[in-house]
Design goal:
Number of helices: 12
Strand order of the largest sheet: 1-4-5
Distance between the termini: 36 Å
Mean pLDDT: 95
Order of helices and strands: HHHEHHEEEEHHHHHHEEEEH
Helix content: 40-55%
Strand content: 5-15%
Structural class: mainly alpha
CATH class of one domain: Mainly Alpha
Largest sheet: 3 strands, antiparallel
């Protein structure tokens, strides 16, 4: 994630001096993926606590003890390789390659990282894909078997771009299907899974930051309408929380409650959730730095009206972005052209 952040920062700011100063720790972070994260020698990042008595059993972002489970609710043995961690590793190698080529003047290192990333993507799509459910496993267990629950982790894979293009539509259908999408946002765990609990910390609640990353991933694969659905749901929920999104809220269906149900011990304010609306604005306005410029390609869902974001700073100086909601006729034509209901 450090490498991902550094690359994204440079794309926006053009601050190559910082990238040069941080070359050593960035290379060290990339080396960690292969030399320390790859604890079983399979090419995947696994984790296992060093302190079983008081340490965190799960060391992905879903760090509660029951966060990672099989479809039937059983808990796996450790170590575990959750799917999104492999996506982060892929993204880090691709971004590290860009920095190596464009800033550090090391094309050989860049080519090596790109080759390793391509190999990781190929292996991942072979080993994590569950063909009969048309989804990615939440994790691989210590024996390399599928931890076969349907979870929001899959959305992070779109963000990192590790998903094969041909499989992206199936992932999008799951994320916006009734088992995962509550109407307010994507649940951490689908209603079809053994441990689903709409007020379970990582087993059925909706996390705004999680949803912002999923929306960005959907948009990166061209699913702008679906990304907008998630953004609109989270923005609607924010109104009921007084404009300040909490850490998480309950996963009850929207048509059951008509308002987002509070999670009793959610942090509010919380930094992750405070950042979520900013990323959702980026998604809705289609903001993307490219070759020293900021691309603006808005896709605002019906009902959100007009969005203006003024004085966006970056290597381009400052720029304004404007987006207007599409009407229902235009949205229908877009969906029909893609074969979606």
């Amino acid at each position: 994630m450090f490498v991902v952040l550094l690359d994204e920062y440079e794309r926006w700011t053009g601050d190559v001096d910082l990238v040069r100063r941080l070359e050593f720790p960035t290379r060290a972070a990339l080396d960690w993926i292969d030399n320390y994260g790859n604890m079983l020698g399979t090419g995947y990042i696994y984790y296992k606590t060093r302190n079983p008595e008081t340490g965190l059993l799960n060391q992905c972002w879903k760090d509660s003890p029951d966060a990672i489970s099989y479809h039937d609710g059983r808990l796996p043995c450790y170590p575990l390789a959750t799917c999104e961690l492999q996506g982060y590793a892929y993204d880090a190698k691709m971004r590290g390659a860009r920095l190596a080529r464009e800033v550090w003047d090391d094309p050989a290192y860049a080519e090596r990282l790109e080759r390793e990333a391509a190999e990781l993507k190929q292996r991942f799509n072979r080993d994590f894909w569950i063909a009969d459910r048309e989804c990615y496993a939440t994790a691989l267990d210590r024996d390399g078997g599928h931890v076969d629950s349907l979870s929001s982790n899959m959305g992070h894979l779109l963000w990192s771009r590790i998903v094969d293009e041909a499989r992206a539509p199936a992932v999008a259908r799951h994320l916006l299907g009734p088992a995962l999408f509550s109407g307010w946002g994507v649940r951490t765990l689908a209603t079809t899974e053994g441990r689903y609990n709409p007020i379970g910390y990582h087993v059925g609640t909706v996390w705004p930051f999680d949803n912002s990353i999923i929306a960005w991933g959907l948009a990166r694969y061209g699913f702008r309408h679906e990304a907008g659905q998630i953004a609109a749901g989270i923005i609607d929920a924010a109104r009921d929380f007084g404009g300040r999104l909490p850490e998480a809220f309950a996963g009850f269906p929207r048509d059951q409650t008509n308002y987002p149900v509070e999670y009793p011990t959610a942090c509010s304010p919380q930094a992750w959730s405070a950042g979520a609306p900013l990323l959702l604005l980026r998604v809705l306005l289609g903001l993307r730095p490219h070759d020293g410029h900021l691309i603006i390609d808005p896709h605002v869902p019906e009902g959100l009206g007009r969005i203006e974001l003024l004085d966006i700073p970056g290597r381009w100086g400052t720029i304004d972005a404007l987006g207007r909601a599409r009407d229902s006729v235009e949205t229908g034509r877009l969906l029909s052209s893609r074969g979606l209901p």
